Amino acid sequence: MRAFSDLRFSPPALAALALLIVAGFLIDDEYILNLMIISLFFGAQAMVFDFTAGFIGIINFGFAAFLGLGAYVSALSAIRLGLSPWLAMWLGAGVAGIVGWLTAILTLRLSGIFATVMSWFVGLTLLSLATALVPLTRGSLGLSVPPLLEAAERRPLFFALLPLAALIYAVLRAITRSRVGLAFRAIGDNIEAARASGINPSRYRSLNFTISCFFAGLLGGFYAHFVGILTPEIMATSHTVEVLALAYIGGRGSLWGGLAAAFLVIPVFEFLKPLFEIRLVIYGLLLIAVMIYVPDGLAGRLARLRRVA
Amino acid sequence: MDGWALWDLFLTGLLRGGLYALMALGLSLVFGVINIPQFAHGEFYMLGAYFAYFAFFTLGSTPMVAILLAGAAGFAAGALIEKALFGPLRKRGGADWVMNTFLVTIGLSFVLQNGALALWGANFRGITGYWSGSLRLGSSMSIPLDRVAGFGLAIGAILAFWLFLGRTRTGRAIRAVAQDETGAALLGIEPNRIRNLAFALSTMLAAIAGGSLLSLNPAHPAMGSEALFKSWFVVILSGLGSVGAAIPGGFLVGILETFGSYFFGSVWQDCVSISIIILILLFRPNGLFASDVRGIWER
Amino acid sequence: MLEVENLSAGYDGLQVLWDVSLRVRTGEFVALLGPNGAGKSTALRVIAGLLRPTAGSVKFAGNSLAGLRPAEISRAGIRLITEDSNLFLAMSVYENLLLGAYTLRHRKRIDERMEMAFALFPVLKERRKQLAGTLSGGERKMLGLARALMARPKLFLVDEPSLGLAPRIMMSVFEALQSMNRQGMTVVLVEQNVNATLSIANRAYLLERGRIVLEGESGVLRNNTQIQESYLGLS
Q: Which of B45, B55, C38, C114 has a CB 3.0–4.6 Å from the CB of C207, allowing a cystine?
């Protein structure tokens, strides 16, 4: 792939990574470490989601289902085929990537909102399949998944997720900064103009979906072995919306915005326990407020401030 | 398979279809007139069920009044929300309108659904029935009155709405704004007010649907999700170009789904439905009954 | 009735009108002439409220139209017919006309106006059940005019009605405008066809590159050498 021209991290990203590494070593509190894992997990999802929504301008509304697909494939291959969870994750990623590619093919003739609805339908199909194929997945009863690590301590698990998240960030960032990324943005801005300039929207859309669903599946694989019990609920649309909200609050098209938003929003909700009950209400209100008043999200605002200064 | 069972399935399908048609009509209206992909549509169905429940159970109204109150509350909620949310978005203007409003409706759906959860809890609020008794058809068939009434209300609402849109001054104005907003404004029609009205009407239709089926589908906060999916399913299948197409589309889906559920089992029926729609969209991306003219009314 | 003073306007930073002033008295038939791209349509759009001016004012019957929405300006009694008529293509001729009468309340008056519209353009009566999208170019123009007339506007702004029309149809459209004017309606006509326009208008303004360069009674303008050379093909 000619895309990997720039696999380095930018200074702020390196700083953030360093910060996370240091925090991972210094912090002893299991509770906080767990929070960090969750934030990182959601932040990584937001990045992957943004890779599609913020660049080619299509909202993959079945996102959670691709993550769940990766989760189930990983879990089942660990259970049935005896694969190590570390390998099984990548198998999950692969399958999710393929299904993502198929979904892209399905939606090629559809524009904007129709593609969104179609990807939503695909997600719902995956969800209902996971629920229906009880002999395979145990449906809503829950599938018991071999853990990633024997110990239940959070720190090693955090350091299991961190390289994955870092890898995802590095790869996505490299792609978005390459000619492929330019093509993505061109399609997202004005698909007709892109086509007129010789960019084949279908090819790039397929590429984008495959990559983002691949990484969604990877994260799903991690999730399965991290949480230990898998139910189809992970594929629910509300989960996609949570990720979507983070991505948009952070700023679409920024990649890192969602990660930052996750680290802001999730711990805050945890510490304000009473709010947790109406967490989703607040997500909704935040999303509405952001779309109406700050459509560029945090990252966008930051960029604008930097330009003014 | 005996004749009566078949007939019973058909009637159930018809009832479902009427409900779907009503919901899809509302959704079509919003998307066709205001160009908003409404993903909170199911929540207004849910609110309608709750309003009807409170009116019927708590206030002790008669069934008709309860359902009408639910409709009125749905209308009011829609009017307020449209003004508060989409007015400012419109001022912002721009190319991202469809996506932005989509996201706002997602947020709205979250707020409404979880707000309902916080306010009223997750318990199902059902009623045993609006009307007692059944309708006898022939010597061995009887349908509970509630189902008949539910169906009748759905049909009545659809008919009333059809006539409203087709034959009244305001209905014409709504269609005009959908087809050519500038042209409508140049004739003295206020597009913002019409849009607000269209949105409020769509939420009213959803609320009426929720209210009329209260005895069959008890109210609970998450009930909107399925209603949302079904509405979009019908609208995409029928084609977004026409409000009218949503009606036969709704009935078609209702009947096919009921039969599908019987033969495939309800668990597989979703997979089958979606596979079918994916196939259809592959060959007719604009839907089954689509047309080229981007008006919301077909003759 | 209409006072436009020092109007400047443009699109996306490109200025089209520069310091334009015109006056139209009640009952007059005034023409706004000029070559393609002079800004004539822009001027009408600003008056109708479709475009915000960057400077200047528009007053109708003594009241300022500044900041009013197009629908409000319509309701004040101004009707604009755009070049493409903005018809409701998926609705019938009859429904389009009905919508023209949106601001009227009494059924009888609407029926009367409908009859008058049909009298003015008999072909519309023939095709009244047809969808507007199926009409020919000339018929669409007629429908656009008839629709705008339904509410008996005080001021009628017409943008290039003759564009794309066969001469015969163009003449009947012009005759219709003349008859409406005689019945008391004030007309501002934007046209490229100078000859025909000058024969029905009382006065005219010549707009070139966004500025008014000439104004006067039709008779006087006919004899103006600049007009004769540039627009009437005489020298």
A: C38
**Residue for token pair 């079945």:** A62
Of C79, C102, C147, the CB nearest to B173: C102
Backbone angles phi, psi at C205, to 5 degrees: -115, 145
pTM of whole model > 0.90? Answer: no
B32 to chain C, any CB pair closer than 8 A? The answer is: no
* Domain ranges across chain A: 11-235
With an 8 Å Cβ cutoff, are B236 and A114 in contact?
Answer: yes
Amino acid at C149: L
Q: Let me know if domain B3-128+138-283 sits in CATH 1.20.81.
A: no
Closest chain C C-alpha to B192 CA, distance in angstroms = 10
Q: Taking CB atoms and an 8 Å cutoff, what residues of chain B touch A295?
A: 92, 96, 100
| Chain B environment of C102 (Cβ under 8 Å) | 169, 173, 187-189
Size of interface A-B (CB pairs under 8 A): 109
* ipTM computed for the complex: 0.89
C206 vs C194: CA distance, rounded Å: 10
Domains contained in chain C, CATH given: 1-77+153-235 (3.40.50.300), 86-152 (no CATH)
Model pLDDT for residues A244-271, shown as the tens digit of each residue:
999 998 888 888 888 999 999 888 887 7
What sign results for the dihedral spanned by CA atoms B159, B160, B161, B165?
positive
Cβ-defined contact of B103 to A244 (cutoff 8 Å): yes
Domain definitions of chain B by residue range: 3-128+138-283
List C-alpha distances in Å: C132 to C88, C99, C163. 7, 13, 18
Cβ atoms of A36 and A161 within 8 Å: the answer is no
Interface of C with B in 115-134 (CB under 8 A): 131, 133
